[in-house]
Amino acid sequence: MQNLLARSLKYHGGQIFVLDQYLLPHQEHWHVCNSVVEMQELILTLKVRGAPLIGLAATLLVAHLAEQGLSQSKLAEAINDLEATRPTAVNLMHCMKQMRQALAEDNFVDALVATAEQLFNEDIALCESMASLGAALVKPGDNILTHCNTGALATAGVGTALGVIHHAHQKHGDIHVWVDETRPLLQGGRLTAFELESWQIPYTLICDNMAASLMAAGKVDKIFVGADRIAANGDFANKVGTYNLAVLAHFHNVEFYVVAPITTLDIDCESGQHIPIEERAESEVKGVSGSFGECQWAPNNAKVFNPAFDVTPAHLVTGWVLDTGVYNLQQVKDGALKQL
Ligand code: MRU
Fold first, then answer.
1. From the annotation, which residues make up the binding site?
2. What is the whole-number distance in angstroms between the Cα of residue 93 and the centre of ligand 1?
3. Could you tell me what reaction this enzyme catalyses (predicted)?
4. Residues near 38 by Cβ (< 8 Å), separated by ≥ 6?
């Protein structure tokens, strides 16, 4: 396989390296990943995270194992096991479907490698298109709010929602970003703040429950978020807390955009009701952990509900910024997404 380079995933000298996103921003530690079990652990613990990146990391591993001589049946097993790692982000299923098709070919090793390279390079191009299309919606001086982490760490390219912010900053200079810290796992506070800082984009970190009063005070012009799965009717799943923002945006008349590549569309999924939502460990809500250590504040026996994602209904969305264009609610109601 050719060398491939992204901010948090690379294939170099015949090995796969992944940047540990759980330890960022205080430690930059790269893992070498050689097996399905290792990759599953990296994905489950969110060391590898973000809808496009999860799919690409699993894809590189399958191609790598094929090059190492794993049998066709073992590769089929690997694809199934990797696909089952996290249920909500459909990019993983999309990538594994492409790899399953490549595996069915006579020359399956070459086919798997070519497919992996193509999916990786395609993601870079998709990010670029979304970022340019979305940046055109931003005006100089805009205050933009974003949730979770949707940047170069979460994709092979510049990112989805954060890619838009990156390109808008390059275009206009004077924008400012409100960063939701994104409880429980703090992808905003840890990763988005880190990326904006490295891009020298002015930002202010807030707790998730501060967004309402900011909107009431007229301090948010636009919201850009990513997606883990967009249903055919435009409903979409994204990091838990996204739906709160959409409701608040509707109430306060703030433009609310979802930014995602075609690989996040699930046309077989009729509406948001059918999107499987991952539930995660109680410990994530009872306290926090990361490169700074571990801390639990809730009582040991506290009962916890911890869905990792929520679903935003299409009627709360101002626009869907995809790599193919920006679609409004009427276009989505008329079936625009089903035609892509
Ligand atoms: O649980 P995570 O950190 O993988 O969740 C990530 C998100 O919800 C992102 O918003 C989404 O994957 C889009 S990233 C390009």
1. 49-51, 86, 187, 238-239
2. 15
3. 5-(methylsulfanyl)-alpha-D-ribose 1-phosphate = 5-(methylsulfanyl)-D-ribulose 1-phosphate; 5-deoxy-alpha-D-ribose 1-phosphate = 5-deoxy-D-ribulose 1-phosphate
4. 31
Q: Which atom of ligand 1 is found nearest the CA of 187?
A: 3
The string of pLDDT tens digits covering residues 251-308 is 999 999 999 999 999 999 999 999 999 999 999 999 998 777 889 999 999 999 999 9
Mean predicted lDDT score pLDDT of the chain: 97
Count of beta carbons in the 10 Å neighbourhood of residue 82? 24
159 CA: nearest ligand 1 atom? 15
154 CB less than 6 Å from ligand 1?
yes
> Is 1.20.120.420 the CATH classification of the domain at 4-127?
yes
3-class secondary-structure state, position 216: helix
pLDDT (0 to 100) of residue 290? 78
2-54, pLDDT tens digit by residue? 999 999 999 999 999 999 999 999 999 999 999 999 999 999 999 999 999 99
Percent of the chain with pLDDT over 70: 100
Residue 45 token pair: 């613990």
User: What confidence score (pLDDT) does residue 48 get?
Assistant: 98
Phi, psi torsion values for 324, nearest 5 degrees: -90, -10
Q: CA 42, CA 18: separation in Å to the nearest integer? A: 9
By most ligand atoms within 8 Å of CB, the mutation choice from 238, 275, 306, 320 for ligand 1 is 238
In the chain, where the domains are located? 4-127, 131-339
Query: pLDDT-based confidence at 154, cuts 50/70/90?
Result: very high
Torsion 180-185-187-193 (CA) sign: positive
When computed from its CA atoms, the radius of gyration of the chain, rounded to whole angstroms, is 19
pLDDT of residue 291: 76
| Residues in CB range of 11: below 8 A, 6 or more apart | 1, 2, 3, 4, 17, 60, 64
Burial label for 173, CB within 10 Å (0-12, 13-18, 19+), is exposed
In single-letter form, the type of residue at position 287 comes to G
Distance CA 321, CA 135 (A): 10
Name which CATH class applies to 131-339.
alpha beta
